[in-house]
Design brief:
The chain is 49% helix and 12% strand. The protein has 674 residues and is α+β, with helices and mostly antiparallel strands. The chain has a five-stranded mixed beta sheet with strand order 1-3-2-4-5. Strands 20-19-21-22 form a four-stranded mixed beta sheet, with helices on both faces.
């Protein structure tokens, strides 16, 4: 029997009608595999994954495949977003076996869960052949399979061991980052931004670091590269210029044709990146991206309780009522000519309804390759007139797009991704000053506290249909702590800072490994997997350990907690000798920059502190740890700084503070990179 009908995950429910006797990942399923001495098929994916849908249609909906899988295997479906711990372990296994990974991730394991074979997408015929061979081998020569499983398990376990090399004082010098950046920059795409490869991922945490490093070292070339990347992404098909929001990645080097799924975590991080870039440049394009992206999130991903849903699918129904990747977003020339009439020529030049913008099957993905100034000059228009036309076209096509069947929604709410989006809203408020952004951030914080934080002190990982489920992973704590620190620094509501400290202390009690001197991804008191997992390297989302280390650094300063600061620097010093390629360690390098002499702390204390901190937050100051209070505070960094008669700015460096100043302009001048 297919047991997925009893699950709440949208991905698992997509497979609930398959003829495969799917089971969910749980203790009972694992016990069944051992009791029946059957190989397990562990198939991992997520609801917005296009190739997961393809393999489902070709193989998992097929009775011939079911007749092989059902009698011979225990088949387990896993939503990687619900169980990132399971996904991480088996992704390591597949990468060891094949040197690559991706989704759908399909692994065949011994009854005890140790993998013996794995890969990603397979056509039906290949899938049948592979399963038949593995089943025959297990029946005729199980010892050979057991021997391979033992060797592979050793490799997986070895990957979980942290290299305890310790950076010496010379290696710790932030000046070494320039040397690493020289190597890193060789992979930059100086024509279209991002990296000179395809597929092309946005990697927001990379560009948050690169922007900071460029700013603190006054590197015009590096800042120009960041701006090139952000502009090309905003003008590419990757960004939905009509409805807002970014797709997951581009299949080409021009940011033109995306994989069309829209993920909450991408959009939260990108709002933060564009907000920081807007502070630095005041570029109206960045403001437009922020506002459109948050409008998309409000419209498509907001639940009635103030939480955010996980994702929109890549596939949607086309005009023939068939599921097709990107159908909701693409346009055909005849459609556009009919809708735009006399404006089509200008529109088609701006958005490349030509060979440059063509995708496939008579479909075009809108992409802008020329500036508005250039297009306006070509057609004898003013930039203002063209901007007005562009807005009218976008509104017209958006209304037309709304008549189409929308992509499927993954309506679970994940704690870590909600926290990423919460920080995005907070950063957008800091940059643009919109009260509605702060209101949404506060509502989401309440949702996390009320629905995803248990009375016993731990966080839940997922929420759907009024129910919280799955005990939280390190990522849930790390990103929630980060978001609460940011929300405190925007509002000066100390409740959020104390929440951040409470969750940090919980992490030390339940996740910290004294031997490895890093935090486990999965809490120590939960059911063990076949190997431990320490998330160290940054990826599309920064690693949970790098986020925790940055959190500890900030909280250590604000609470004068030497244990926090020592742990953060100890973690960093273990990582520094392993940094070879900057992209995989950019959030660690952000912490490394905190050791720079440019870094400062600022306390704003007094009756008008909120106005003062709001003005400071509008500036791009990545090298400054902010705090403040409108009343006497017990936070150690703020103690004895409140003055009932005046609002004062205290500028500090390594806790050594100058005499306070009263004028914002004076404070900003002192904080500026000299």
């Amino acid at each position: 029997m297919n047991e997925l009908q009893y699950e709440s995950s949208p991905y698992l429910l997509q497979h609930a009608q398959n003829p495969i006797h799917w089971k969910a990942w749980n203790d009972q399923t694992l016990a069944t595999a051992k009791a029946e001495n059957k190989l397990m098929i562990i198939s991992i994916g997520y609801s917005a994954c296009h190739w997961c849908h393809v393999m489902e249609h070709e193989s998992f909906e097929d009775t011939e495949v079911a007749n092989i899988m059902n009698p011979g295997f225990i088949s387990v479906k896993v939503d990687r977003e619900e169980r990132p711990d399971v996904d991480a372990i088996y992704m390591k296994a597949v990468q060891l076996m094949t040197s690559h990974g991706g989704w759908p991730l399909n692994v065949v394991c011994l009854p005890d869960g140790r993998p013996v074979w794995g890969g990603t997408y397979f056509k039906k015929e290949n899938w049948i052949d592979i399963l038949t061979q593995l089943q025959n081998l297990y029946q005729t020569n199980p010892a050979k399979m057991l021997e391979y499983a033992e060797k592979l398990h050793e490799g997986i376990s070895f990957l979980g061991i942290v290299n305890h090399a310790q950076a010496n004082p010379e290696e710790q010098d932030p000046a070494r980052i320039k040397i690493l950046l020289e190597k890193w920059s060789k992979s930059f795409d100086w024509d279209f931004g991002g990296y000179a490869r395809a597929p092309k991922f946005m990697m927001p945490n990379n560009f948050i670091f690169l922007q900071r490093f460029g700013y603190q070292t006054s590197s015009k070339d590096l800042l120009d590269f960041v701006d090139l990347t952000l502009t090309k992404m905003a003008h590419g098909g990757l960004f939905d210029v009509l409805g807002g929001g970014f797709s997951r990645y581009s299949v080409d080097m021009r940011w033109h044709v995306p994989h069309f799924e829209k993920m909450l975590y991408d959009n939260g991080q990108l709002v933060s990146l564009y907000a920081q870039a807007y502070k630095r440049t005041q570029n109206p394009l960045y403001k437009d991206v922020i506002e459109k992206t948050l409008a998309f999130v409000e419209r498509e991903l907001l639940n009635p309780e103030g939480g955010f849903y996980a994702a929109l699918d890549a596939d949607s129904l086309n005009a023939k009522q068939q599921l097709e990747e990107g159908a909701y977003y693409v346009w055909q020339k005849e459609q556009l000519q009919q809708l735009l009439q006399d404006d089509f020529e200008v529109f088609s030049t701006l958005f490349n309804i030509n060979d440059f913008g063509y995708w496939e099957h008579d479909n075009y993905v809108l992409i802008q390759s020329q500036s508005l100034e250039s297009i306006a000059e070509q057609f004898g228009l003013t930039v203002t007139a063209l901007s007005d036309k562009k807005l009218q076209w976008e509104q017209l096509l958006f209304r037309e797009q709304q008549k189409r069947t929308k992509p499927r929604l993954d309506d679970k709410s994940l704690t870590s991704w909600n926290a990423i989006m919460l920080k995005g809203y907070t950063e957008a408020y800091n940059a643009l000053g919109s009260a509605s952004f702060l209101e949404r951030a506060l509502q989401n914080a309440s949702f996390i506290i009320e629905k995803l934080w248990s009375e016993d002190g731990y966080l839940w990982h997922s929420y759907k249909n009024g129910q919280s489920s799955i005990v939280g992973f390190l990522e849930d704590y790390a990103f929630t702590i980060d978001a609460f620190i940011s929300l405190y620094q925007a509002t000066l509501d100390e409740t959020f800072l104390y929440h951040a400290k409470q969750l940090t202390d919980y992490c030390f009690d339940h996740f910290y490994d004294e031997t490895q001197q890093f935090f486990l991804f999965k809490a120590k008191n939960t059911t063990a997997l076949i190997a431990e997992h320490y998330e160290i390297e940054d990826n599309v989302i920064p690693s949970s350990n790098s986020v925790m280390a940055n959190n500890l650094y900030t909280l250590g300063i604000l609470f004068h907690n030497s244990h926090y600061e020592k742990t953060a620097l100890q973690m960093l010093n273990h990582v520094i000798p392993n940094i070879d390629y900057g992209s995989a360690f950019s959030n660690w390098m952000n912490l490394w920059m905190n050791l720079s002499t440019d870094n400062k702390e600022l306390a704003v204390c007094g009756a008008d502190a909120i106005a003062g901190i709001k003005a400071v937050q509008q500036q791009y100051l990545p090298h400054v740890v902010l705090a403040g209070s409108t009343s006497p505070s017990k936070i150690p960094f703020l103690q004895n700084r409140f003055d009932e008669k005046d609002t004062l700015f205290y500028i500090c460096e390594n806790r050594n503070c100058q005499l306070p100043v009263r004028e914002l302009t004076t404070a900003l001048d002192e904080l500026a990179i000299k």
